[in-house]
Amino acid sequence: MNDAASRPVFDRTTQDIGNIVEFGHVNVRVPDQRLAILFYVAGLGLTRDPYLMVSVDNGWINVGTCQFHLPVGPAQVLRGVTGLVMADIDALMARLAIVAPRLAGTAFSFARSGDQVDVTCPWGNRIRVHAPDLQRFGPILLGMPYVEIDTAPGTAAAIARFYREILLSPASADRDAGGAFARVPIGKGESLIFRETPRPLGDFDGHHVQIALSNFSGPHALLQARGLITEESNDAQYRFQDITDLDTGVVLCTIEHEVRSMRHPMYARALVNRNPTQTNNDYAPGQEDAVWSMRV
């Protein structure tokens, strides 16, 4: 006999995934692959993808299930900050100290505050590295849980509406100690965050983020009707860059989105992540791979 009163009660909405099912990568151009490898691989301790883009004109850097893409060209700077989670903040600080002399004369810097390290890449991109935190970031031990994008005052609510109605995402607007922001949930544990700031934003330089959609054609039709599609890449990919007020058409924020379908051949591609604490001086067999998610 089923006793309804004795059944556990669950909030089923906590298991919902919105239409944006994957955050793939942040793409910024870099002028020098040597300095990029020093910073992203030797300093941050991330992993260069061993299978794709292995020459000197681009580098794909794995971070758990996400990536940085670093094609060679005039430097691009994300207008915001990329958030990472890493399991060993002490080891990160040691690696950054080792590469610091070789990055002298660039914009590189780093500073620790508790379990958070704020790092600037040689060309000015801001990265904030956090220790794992189950309540804040879920079970991520190595990953890119958020990309926070600077936006003008008074835009957060309209940006959230754009993602709800055009990208069909359960986006929301809120306020915290840092001010007003819009949060766009992605997949199982990532977010795009649009943070209002009074600081000058500067000109958009062409950097982009890549996402994948479950309902791929619906948002395309909605974007196309508003004249927002900027590239028809192929049958499984398109691009747009302007986030607009849905009533007035005024551009609220610009950041290029590379939008893929779940049929894209690289959707959910398994990525190699090394354990950066493993060295030839204290090598232990079987410990080459990083663990990027905790058991819960």
Structure overview:
This protein has 296 residues and is α+β, with helices and mostly antiparallel strands. The protein has one domain (17-261): 2,3-Dihydroxybiphenyl 1,2-Dioxygenase, domain 1 (Roll), CATH 3.10.180. It is 15% helix and 33% strand. It is built from 5 helices and 16 strands. Strand 7 and strand 8 form a beta hairpin. Helix 1 packs antiparallel against helix 2. The longest helix has 11 residues, at 33-43. The chain is globular. The relative contact order is 0.17. The mean pLDDT is 96.
* Largest sheet data: 8 strands, mixed
Distance between the termini: 31 Å
Basic shape: globular
Number of strands: 16
Give the ordered list of helices and strands.
EHEEEEHEEEHEHEEEEHEEE
Q: What is the CA-based Rg, rounded? A: 20 Å
CATH fold category name: 2,3-Dihydroxybiphenyl 1,2-Dioxygenase, domain 1
CATH superfamily: 2,3-Dihydroxybiphenyl 1,2-Dioxygenase, domain 1
Helix content: 10-25%
Low-confidence stretches: none
Second rung of CATH, namely the architecture: Roll
Mean pLDDT: 96
Count of helical regions? 5
CATH top level label: Alpha Beta
Chain oligomer state: single chain
Query: What's the number of structural domains?
Result: 1
The share of residues in extended strands comes to 25-35%
Strands ordered across the widest β-sheet = 2-3-4-1-13-16-15-14
